[in-house]
C-alpha cells in the first residue's frame, strides 16, 4: 500500500473499494472460476496473475458485469451490487482495457479517447444535430480533457491517425487513454504490457504508476511479466485453474510453495 | 443434448404440436360461427404447407452448406435457383433437349459458375469482414438475375418435366372426403428428401465431406492438414448450385419459371433464422415449420386481416422467435468473450 | 486553386472541430451550393425532374441508411418499408390537416417513420449481422402489405394510389403536387436535403456518432466502456428511419406526386443499399456520390446505345443494368470497400502533397 500512502490525494489506507466473495462462474461444463474471494483497497495496485486459462480475464469480465457468475457477490464502494449490465458498471466508475486490443478501428486515436468519455457526455440528438450551443460547448470541453490525456500519454503526433494504422504498442497506449478518459475510480488492465518490448513496457509502467499516484486511481492489473508485477503491484492474487492459490504482497506470493509449483515452476521449466 | 435425442424429441414433438394447434383452431367456430374447420381440411392445409416447406428447406440447405464451409452468408442462393431454372428450361424449350440432358448440362453450368464465383469474387475478398462478403453476394444476386434473363429472356416459362399433377386423396377411411394432396408436391418432397439424405451421406462418409466439416470447424486447422481451401469453396458452391437447380426445377414446375422465383427463395432466409445458420437439420425443420405455419396462418386467419399474409408471416414468425432464442432452434448458444 | 492546409494553423479546438477544417474544402462547398441554388434551376425541366429530383430524394434515403448501416453497423434491408411509411404518413397528415405547413408535414412523416423504425429495431438488441438483416426484411414486407391492405391509408381511394396534394411555402410558392413548377420543387428538395445532410454531419461528429461507430466497430468493448447498446441502437434506427421517412415523403410529394406502395418494394431497399456501398459506408459525402451514381447510371445506359447508333430493346437494357449493378458492387467491394468517398479522399490527399509526394 505504499502507493496509496505516498499519494497525498489518496484515501485513508485500508478502505476497501471492491470485494468479491465466493465467485463461481462456469460456461456449460467449463468451470472458469471456483469460489474466488479477494478484495481491492482504494488506491492500490492489485495484480492478478496465473497461467493461461486460469480465469483472470473472466474475473475482470465478472467485475465489469459482462459475465454473470452463478454464485457469489460483489461489493463495490460498500454496496453489494445487484446483477448489472456492463454499461451500468462502467457508470459506477470502472474502466477497462482489453487483452486483445479492442479499439474502435474505424476511428482516430482522438475519437477513440473521446468515446471513452461517453459516460459523462450528453447524448441529445436535437442539440447535436444543430451543433450550436450545448453540443459544441460540450465537444470542446471534453476535447480539452482528452487533450490533457493525450499529452500525458505522449501521443500528440498520432491523435488524428486511424487507430488501425498504429503500431501495436501505440494502440495499447491509446486504449489506456480511452480508459483514462472516463476518469475512473477503478481501472481494470488486462495484460497492458503483453507483446511489448522493454522500452514500451517501461513507458507503460510509468504511465500506470503516474496515474495511480496523481489521481489515486485504483488498479487491477493482469500481467504475465513477473518482474513488472513484483515491481509495481501492492498485492497479488494468484489464480490457477479457476481457483485462488495465494493472495498477498509480492514478496510473500513469490515465496509461496504452491505458487512456485503451479505457476513459477511451470514457467521456469 | 445429443443429436439423436434431439431428433427423437422433434419426431415426437412435431405431431403433438400439430395436434395442439389444430385443437386450438378447432375452437375458433365458438368465437366466429362462420369459421370453417374440419380435421380433414386442417390436415390438408398442414400437409400442403409441409410439402411447400420441404422446398423452402431445400433452398435453405444451399445456404447452410455455403455458410458452414466458408462462413459466407450467400444471399444469392435465391438467384442461383432462378438462374438454374432458367438454364434448365431454356435448354429444354429453346434447344429441345431431353430433361435429363438439360439437367446434366445445367449442373455443368452451375459448377462452372461456382468456380467463377470462387475465382472472381471470393478469392479477392478472402479475409474481409463477413458483412462485405454478404454484400458481395447481393452483387452476385443482381448479376445472376440480369445474366439469366439477358440470355433466356424474361417471359414466364412453363416447366413440365412430366411429373404427375393430379390431386390425390389420402386417408379416405379416416376423414370424410379424405385429405387431398397434390401428387406433384409429394414427388417434389420425395426428391428434396432424397437430396437431403444424399448430402448428409456425402458430408458424413466421404473424404471430401470430412474435409468440408473440418473447414467448417476451423479454417486454420483445415489448412494446416493440407486441405486446399479454394477447392473446398468451389465444391460447396457447386453443390449449393446443384441444390439450387433441384429447387429451381421443383419450384419452376410448380409456379412457372419467372423472376418471382428469386423472391420465393428469399423465404429461405427466415427458415435459416429459425433453424440456425449452421445446422442442416435446422434448415429442414425450419422449412417445415415455416411452410406449415404460413399456410395455417393464411388459410385460417388470413381472411380476417385481408389475406396475402404469406408475404410476411414467415419473416415475422422468425423475428419474434429470434427475440426469445437468438441462436435459432439448432444453433449453439455462444457467450462472446473479450 | 492550390489545395493546401499548410499555414492554416488551428488555434483552438473549436476551429479544429469545425465542419471543414481545411479552407479550400469550405470554399468548395460554398461554390457547390451556389451552383446548386442559382445555376441548376436554369437547366431544362428534363434535367430537374429526371435527374436532380430523384438524386436529392435518394440521397436523403442513402443518408438514412448510411447512419444505420455505415455508422451504427446495423445492416438493414428494410429501407423501402421505412420510405413507404414516410410517404403514407405525409399523405395522411397532409390530407387530414390541410392547413398544416408542408415542413411540419414532412417532420411529422419523419417522426412516424422513426417510431416504426424503433419498433423494428428492437430485434437488434438481441441479434446481429445477417440475422438482423433478415429481421429487417420483416419490416419491408409487413409495412408494404399493411399499406396495400388497409384502405384507410390511401383514404379509401379504389386504385390504391395516393396523389400528393399541392402545398405551398412562404404563402404561395407551391412545392408539392403535380402543379408545382420543377424549379420550386427542386429548390425545396435541395433545401431539405442540404439541411438533413448538415444535421447528419453534425450528429456523426459528436458523442452520438462516436457511440454509433463504437457499437459498429466492437460492440462488446463499447458496452464495457459505458455505451448503452439499447439507446444507441434504437437511436440509430429512429434517426435513420426519420431520414428514410422524409425521403419517402419527398418521393411521393415532390418527385412523383402520386405513388403506390409498390414504389417502395424490396428492390428500392437494395437500390439504397447499393448507393451506400458504392458511395462509401460511413460517409455523408458518400451518400450523395452513391445516389448520383445510381441515379445517373441507368440514364446513361439507356442513352448510350442510341448515341452510338445501337438499338437494344428496353427489357434487355433493364437486364443488362442489373448485371452492371451487380458487377459494380462486387468491383467496388474488392477494389475499394470504402467507396467513392474514399477515392475522393485519396485524390485529395495526393493533391495535398503534390508536387512533392513525400
Ligand atoms: N465466453 C466464454 N465461453 C466459453 N468458455 C470461456 C469463455 N470465456 C472464458 N472461457 C473459459 O474459461 C477459462 C478461463 O478463461 P480466461 O480467459 O479467463 O483465462 P485467462 O486467465 O485470462 O487466460 P489467458 O492468460 O490466456 O488470458 C478458459 O478455460 C476459457 O476457455
Ligand atoms: Mg486473459
From TrEMBL, chain A:
| GO CC terms | plasma membrane
SMART domains, per the entry? AAA (SM00382)
PROSITE patterns named in the record: ABC_TRANSPORTER_2
Residue ranges spanning the membrane: these are none
The domain of life for this entry's organism is: Bacteria
Q: Where is the ABC transporter domain?
A: 18-266
Output this protein's name. Branched-chain amino acid transport system ATP-binding protein
Classification via InterPro entries: AAA+_ATPase, ABC_AA/LPS_Transport, ABC_transporter-like_ATP-bd, BCA_ABC_TP_C, P-loop_NTPase
For this UniProt record, give its keywords in alphabetical order, as a comma-separated list. Answer: ATP-binding, Nucleotide-binding, Transport
> Pfam families from the entry?
ABC_tran, BCA_ABC_TP_C
The molecular function terms in GO held by this entry are:
ATP binding; ATP hydrolysis activity
Organism classification: Bacteria, Pseudomonadati, Pseudomonadota, Alphaproteobacteria, Rhodospirillales
Question: What organism is recorded for this protein?
Answer: Roseospirillum parvum
From TrEMBL, chain B:
Please give the CDD domains that the UniProt record associates with this protein: TM_PBP1_LivH_like
Its membrane topology:
Multi-pass membrane protein
Cellular component GO terms held in the UniProt record:
plasma membrane
Primary location: membrane
Arranged from A to Z, the UniProt key words for this protein are:
Amino-acid transport, Cell membrane, Membrane, Transmembrane, Transmembrane helix, Transport
Q: What is an example of a Pfam family matching this protein?
A: BPD_transp_2
* Ranges that cross the membrane: 7-27, 39-65, 72-91, 97-117, 124-144, 186-203, 232-251, 271-292, 299-324
> Which positions are tagged coiled coil?
none
PANTHER family assigned to the protein according to its UniProt record, in alphabetical order = ABC TRANSPORTER PERMEASE PROTEIN (PTHR11795:SF451), BRANCHED-CHAIN AMINO ACID TRANSPORT SYSTEM PERMEASE PROTEIN LIVH (PTHR11795)
Q: What is this protein called?
A: Branched-chain amino acid transport system permease protein
Q: Which organism is it from?
A: Roseospirillum parvum
Automatic annotation (TrEMBL), chain C:
Instruction: Establish whether keyword Methyltransferase is in the entry.
Output: no
Where does it localize? Cell membrane
The keyword Transmembrane is annotated on this UniProt entry: yes
- Any one Pfam family here would be BPD_transp_2
Task: Cite a GO CC annotation.
Answer: plasma membrane
Tell me the InterPro entries matching this sequence: ABC_transp_permease, LivM-like
- Membrane topology term: Multi-pass membrane protein
The protein's GO terms of the molecular function aspect are:
branched-chain amino acid transmembrane transporter activity
Which terms are listed as keywords in the entry? Cell membrane, Membrane, Transmembrane, Transmembrane helix
Q: Where would you find the membrane-spanning parts of this chain?
A: 27-43, 49-68, 75-94, 100-122, 129-147, 186-203, 234-254, 274-300, 312-335
Recorded protein name is Branched-chain amino acid transport system permease protein
**What organism is the protein native to?**
Roseospirillum parvum
Amino acid at each position: 500500500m505504499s502507493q496509496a500512502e505516498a499519494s497525498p490525494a489518496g484515501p485513508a489506507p485500508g478502505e476497501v473499494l471492491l470485494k468479491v466473495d465466493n465467485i463461481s462462474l462456469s460456461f456449460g461444463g467449463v468451470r472458469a472460476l471456483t469460489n474466488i474471494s479477494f478484495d481491492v483497497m482504494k488506491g492500490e495496485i492489485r495484480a492478478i496473475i496465473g497461467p493461461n486459462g486460469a480465469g483472470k480475464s473472466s474475473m475482470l469480465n465478472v467485475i465489469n458485469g459482462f459475465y454473470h457468475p452463478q454464485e457469489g457477490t460483489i461489493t463495490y464502494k460498500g454496496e453489494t451490487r445487484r446483477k448489472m449490465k456492463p454499461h451500468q458498471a462502467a457508470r459506477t466508475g470502472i474502466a477497462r482495457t482489453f487483452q486483445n486490443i479492442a479499439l474502435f478501428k474505424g476511428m482516430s486515436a482522438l475519437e477513440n479517447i473521446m468515446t471513452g468519455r461517453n459516460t459523462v457526455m450528453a447524448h441529445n440528438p436535437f442539440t447535436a444535430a444543430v451543433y450550436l450551443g450545448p453540443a459544441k460547448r460540450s465537444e470542446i470541453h471534453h476535447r480539452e480533457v482528452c487533450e490533457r490525456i493525450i499529452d500525458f500519454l505522449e501521443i500528440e503526433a498520432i491523435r488524428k491517425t486511424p487507430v488501425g494504422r498504429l503500431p501495436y504498442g501505440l494502440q495499447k497506449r491509446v486504449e489506456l487513454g480511452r480508459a483514462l478518459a472516463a476518469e475512473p475510480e477503478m481501472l481494470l488492465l488486462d495484460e497492458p504490457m503483453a507483446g511489448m518490448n522493454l522500452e514500451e513496457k517501461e513507458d507503460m509502467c510509468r504511465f500506470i504508476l503516474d496515474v495511480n499516484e496523481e489521481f489515486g486511481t485504483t488498479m487491477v492489473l493482469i500481467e504475465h511479466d513477473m518482474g513488472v508485477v513484483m515491481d509495481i503491484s501492492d498485492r497479488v492474487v494468484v489464480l490457477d485453474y479457476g481457483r485462488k492459490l495465494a493472495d498477498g504482497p509480492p514478496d510473500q506470493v513469490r515465496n509461496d510453495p504452491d505458487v512456485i509449483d503451479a505457476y513459477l515452476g511451470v514457467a521456469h521449466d | 443434448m445429443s443429436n439423436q435425442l434431439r431428433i427423437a424429441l422433434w419426431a415426437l414433438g412435431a405431431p403433438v404440436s400439430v395436434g395442439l394447434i389444430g385443437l386450438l383452431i378447432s375452437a375458433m367456430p365458438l368465437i366466429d360461427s362462420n369459421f370453417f374447420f374440419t380435421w380433414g381440411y386442417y390436415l390438408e392445409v398442414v400437409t400442403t404447407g409441409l410439402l411447400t416447406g420441404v422446398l423452402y428447406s431445400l433452398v435453405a440447405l444451399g445456404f447452410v452448406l455455403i455458410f458452414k464451409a466458408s462462413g459466407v452468408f450467400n444471399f444469392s442462393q435465391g438467384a442461383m435457383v432462378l438462374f438454374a431454372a432458367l438454364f434448365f428450361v431454356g435448354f429444354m424449350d429453346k434447344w429441345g433437349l431431353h430433361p435429363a440432358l438439360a439437367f446434366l448440362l445445367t449442373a455443368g453450368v452451375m459448377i462452372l459458375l461456382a468456380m467463377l464465383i470462387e475465382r472472381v469474387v471470393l478469392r479477392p475478398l478472402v479475409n474481409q469482414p463477413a458483412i462485405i462478403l454478404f454484400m458481395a453476394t447481393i452483387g452476385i444476386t443482381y448479376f445472376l438475375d440480369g445474366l439469366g434473363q439477358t440470355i433466356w429472356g424474361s417471359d414466364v416459362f412453363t416447366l413440365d418435366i412430366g411429373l404427375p399433377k393430379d390431386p390425390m386423396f389420402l386417408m379416405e377411411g379416416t376423414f370424410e372426403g379424405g385429405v387431398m394432396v397434390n401428387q406433384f408436391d409429394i414427388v417434389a418432397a420425395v426428391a428434396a428428401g432424397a437430396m437431403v439424405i444424399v448430402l448428409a451421406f456425402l458430408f458424413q462418409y466421404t473424404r471430401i465431406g470430412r474435409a468440408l466439416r473440418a473447414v467448417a470447424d476451423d479454417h486454420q486447422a483445415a489448412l494446416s492438414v493440407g486441405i486446399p481451401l479454394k477447392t473446398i469453396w468451389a465444391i460447396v458452391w457447386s453443390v449449393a448450385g446443384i441444390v439450387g437447380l433441384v429447387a429451381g426445377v421443383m419450384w419452376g414446375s410448380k409456379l412457372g419459371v419467372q423472376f418471382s422465383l428469386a423472391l420465393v427463395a428469399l423465404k429461405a432466409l427466415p427458415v435459416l433464422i429459425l433453424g440456425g445458420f449452421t445446422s442442416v437439420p435446422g434448415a429442414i425443420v425450419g422449412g417445415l415449420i415455416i411452410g406449415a405455419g404460413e399456410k395455417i396462418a393464411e388459410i385460417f386467419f388470413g381472411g380476417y386481416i385481408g389475406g396475402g399474409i404469406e408475404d410476411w408471416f414467415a419473416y415475422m414468425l422468425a423475428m419474434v422467435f429470434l427475440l426469445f432464442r437468438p441462436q435459432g432452434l439448432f444453433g449453439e448458444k455462444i457467450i462472446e468473450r473479450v | 486553386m492550390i489545395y493546401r492546409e499548410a499555414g492554416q494553423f488551428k488555434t483552438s479546438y473549436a476551429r479544429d472541430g469545425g465542419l471543414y477544417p481545411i479552407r479550400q474544402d469550405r470554399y468548395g462547398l460554398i461554390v457547390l451550393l451556389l451552383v446548386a441554388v442559382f445555376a441548376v434551376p436554369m437547366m431544362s425541366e428534363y434535367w430537374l425532374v429526371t435527374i436532380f429530383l430523384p438524386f436529392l430524394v435518394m440521397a436523403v434515403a442513402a443518408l438514412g441508411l448510411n447512419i444505420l448501416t455505415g455508422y451504427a453497423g446495423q445492416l438493414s434491408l428494410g429501407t423501402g418499408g421505412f420510405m413507404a411509411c414516410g410517404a403514407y404518413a405525409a399523405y395522411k397528415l397532409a390530407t387530414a390537416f390541410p392547413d398544416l405547413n408542408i415542413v411540419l408535414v414532412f417532420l411529422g412523416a419523419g417522426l412516424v417513420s422513426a417510431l416504426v423504425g424503433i419498433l423494428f429495431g428492437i430485434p437488434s438488441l438481441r441479434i446481429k449481422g445477417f440475422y438482423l438483416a433478415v429481421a429487417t426484411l420483416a419490416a419491408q414486407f409487413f409495412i408494404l402489405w399493411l399499406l396495400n391492405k388497409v384502405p384507410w391509408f390511401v383514404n379509401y381511394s379504389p386504385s390504391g394510389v395516393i396523389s400528393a396534394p399541392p402545398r405551398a411555402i412562404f404563402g404561395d410558392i407551391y412545392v408539392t403536387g403535380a402543379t408545382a413548377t420543377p424549379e420550386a420543387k427542386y429548390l425545396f428538395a435541395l433545401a431539405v436535403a442540404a439541411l438533413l445532410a448538415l444535421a447528419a454531419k453534425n450528429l456523426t461528429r459528436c458523442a452520438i456518432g462516436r457511440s454509433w461507430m463504437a457499437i459498429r466497430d466492437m460492440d462488446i468493448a463499447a458496452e464495457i466502456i459505458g455505451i448503452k447498446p439499447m439507446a444507441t441502437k434504437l437511436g440509430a434506427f429512429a434517426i435513420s428511419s426519420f431520414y428514410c421517412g422524409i425521403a419517402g415523403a419527398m418521393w411521393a410529394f415532390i418527385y412523383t406526386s402520386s405513388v403506390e406502395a409498390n414504389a417502395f418494394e424490396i428492390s428500392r431497399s437494395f437500390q439504397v443499399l447499393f448507393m451506400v456501398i458504392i458511395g462509401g459506408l460511413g460517409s455523408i459525402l458518400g451518400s450523395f456520390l452513391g445516389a448520383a451514381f445510381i441515379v445517373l447510371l441507368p440514364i446513361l445506359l439507356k442513352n448510350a446505345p442510341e448515341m452510338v447508333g445501337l438499338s437494344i430493346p428496353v427489357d434487355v437494357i433493364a437486364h443488362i443494368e442489373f448485371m452492371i449493378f451487380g458487377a459494380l458492387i462486387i468491383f467496388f467491394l474488392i477494389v475499394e470497400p470504402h467507396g467513392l468517398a474514399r477515392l475522393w479522399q485519396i485524390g485529395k490527399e495526393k493533391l495535398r502533397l503534390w508536387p512533392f509526394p513525400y
